Amino acid sequence: MDRSDAKEVVGGGSKFPLSFRELAMASLVVVGFVLGLAVVYLTMPASDYSFLRLPRNLEDLQILRDNLEGYTSDYTLQVLIGYCTVYIFMQTFMIPGTVFMSLLAGALFGVFKGVALVVFAATAGASSCYFLSKLIGRPIIFSLWPDKLNFFQAQVAKRRERLLNYMLFLRVTPTLPNTFINFASPIVDVPYHTFFLATVIGLIPAAYVTAGIALGDLRSVGDLYDFQSIATLFFIGVISITPTLMGKSES
């Protein structure tokens, strides 16, 4: 589909943006995630799992943490697989709430293991979203965010020779939402290796801030972004970008 075709999709209004083949591909991805969660569920001991739900606020998160703490030590592998599957699913389909999943990782596994887990799951989820968008994303993104996509495309074209620097900047700062970056990158021809490196490095600061905070110290999600957290995020962000800038200077 070229750009004119995409504009026809935008103007179509009632026309469903996906073809049958594209919808079937997306459905297969959903089925794969559901099967993965089913395997985890079937290998867990018989118990009441009514507490298992996507956290939408700190109260939901604390209930989930309190109930999962006991399972984490005895069924570590199942909890890890279940956590990663849910996180990757949320990233793939741009479902809000991954900040709560990042907080949960720190609460269950500690700061350093939590940060590593969040970076792994977030990078895998972002990559999954990237490749899904490569298959079916063009009509969707032209329907939902045509103006934002035009801005992103122009910036990528202008910074093609220093694209890794720009993608790192986007990951560390709130210039564009991460969900949009994941979905739009293949549409504007950001190479996967650049996307991957920027994601792995650029997500570390936010992962450290979220996974490194004790749930008991939070009264609202807004507490994540106090002055100390923002300063920490900025400091780690500068460190993450420095190697790329040094490499550019040497070249």
Molecular structure report:
The longest helix has 34 residues, at 111-144. The chain is mainly alpha-helical and 251 residues long. The chain has helices at residues 3-12, 20-42, 58-74, 76-92, 98-109, 111-144, 146-158, 163-172, 178-184, 192-202, 204-211, 227-250. The protein starts with a helix and ends with a helix.
Secondary-structure map:
Layout: H1 3-12, H2 20-42, H3 58-74, H4 76-92, H5 98-109, H6 111-144, H7 146-158, H8 163-172, H9 178-184, H10 192-202, H11 204-211, H12 227-250
Helix pairs in contact: 1-6, 2-4, 3-4, 3-5, 4-6, 5-6, 6-9, 6-10, 6-11, 8-10, 8-12, 11-12
Number of helices: 12
Count of β-strands: 0
C-alpha end-to-end distance: 38 Å
Structural class: mainly alpha
How would you sum up the major sheet? none
Give a quick set of tags describing it.
globular, disordered N terminus, 251 residues
How is this structure best summarized?
The chain is an all-alpha fold and 251 residues long.
